[in-house]
Amino acid sequence: MSMFRERVHDNFVLSISETFMKTVYHSADSRGHVNHGWLNTYHTFSFANYYDRERVHFGTLRVLNDDTIQGGIGFGKHPHDNMEIISIPLAGELKHGDNMGNSGIIRKGEIQVMSAGTGVVHSEANPNKSEETVLLQIWIFPKKLNVKPRYDQISIAHLQKTNDFNQILSPDPNDEGVWIHQDAWFHLAQFDKGIKRKYELKKQGNGVYVFVIEGSVKIGAQQLNKRDGLGIWDTHDFELESLENSEILLMEIPMELPDYMAK
């Protein structure tokens, strides 16, 4: 019998996929937290001076930072290499500049991606003195090392349909959203209260990290509230139920680390 076949008995349906599904729950208040004054930041995974050996990464998802930047200030020029870096503004604006000649402002309803590759230097700041900037910054281990650095920024507003999983990132430059050097797919969802949808993974061996931006949802027996996260693996699908009007980010990523990390 297939692992994923459903067994039906007296109106009871048991999903074998969900039976074997593995999860790890991270509550919002369990995250690392540092308030620098100009920057109030929460780390789902180990970052900077926050270290938890049980929370270094989830598969190839290395960083999930929830940053609030005060007006008129930000991160000065600093380097990165060999990382896929994704920024998703939730409120306010973020001004970007880098040594590749890219500059501009990214806002809510847009997504920014930078393949650091052989090395980039960039800066990020809140250009509005009277308004906070809130953003998610996400780092993914790339599929291979030392790619040519690249930058992209697009609007994703036209991709957003209510009560659906809306793709905003993939490995394919010709697909919807931005693309990165990894077999990863990101979906952003705005669900009304009571909506149930099944998410089907794109690739065998991948897992999904579900992060609740706003609202409250349920996956299996686990309820997730604002800024909670749930890692899911060893399944090919799962059902998400919105317990109230909610915004959710789903990050599907390979669970196995790249070969170069084993050397």
Structural summary, described in words:
The protein has one helix and 24 strands. The radius of gyration is 19 Å and the shape is globular. The chain is mainly β. The protein has one domain: Sandwich (Jelly Rolls). The protein has one helix at 16-20; strands at 6-9, 12-15, 22-26, 32-35, 39-43, 61-69, 74-80, 84-91, 93-98, 103-107, 110-115, 120-125, 133-140, 150-155, 166-170, 178-179, 185-191, 196-200, 206-214, 217-219, 222-224, 229-233, 237-242, 246-254. The strands form five sheets. The protein has a seven-stranded mixed sheet with strand order 3-22-19-24-17-15-16, with no helix packed on it. The chain has a seven-stranded antiparallel sheet with strand order 4-5-6-13-8-11-14, with no helix packed on it.
Index terms:
7-stranded mixed β-sheet; single chain; Jelly Rolls; 1 helix; 263 residues; mainly beta
Class of secondary structure makeup:
mainly beta
As a whole number of angstroms, the C-alpha radius of gyration is 19 Å
Largest sheet strand order: 3-22-19-24-17-15-16
CATH topology assignment: Jelly Rolls
| Total count of helical runs of at least 4 residues | 1
CATH C-level class = Mainly Beta
Shape field: globular
CATH architecture: Sandwich
Please provide the ordered H/E string of secondary-structure elements: EEHEEEEEEEEEEEEEEEEEEEEEE
Sequence-ordered SSE layout with sheet pairings:
Elements: E1 6-9, E2 12-15, H1 16-20, E3 22-26, E4 32-35, E5 39-43, E6 61-69, E7 74-80, E8 84-91, E9 93-98, E10 103-107, E11 110-115, E12 120-125, E13 133-140, E14 150-155, E15 166-170, E16 178-179, E17 185-191, E18 196-200, E19 206-214, E20 217-219, E21 222-224, E22 229-233, E23 237-242, E24 246-254
Parallel strand pairs: 15-16
Antiparallel strand pairs: 1-2, 3-22, 4-5, 5-6, 6-13, 7-12, 8-11, 8-13, 9-10, 9-12, 11-14, 15-17, 17-24, 18-23, 19-22, 19-24, 20-21, 20-23
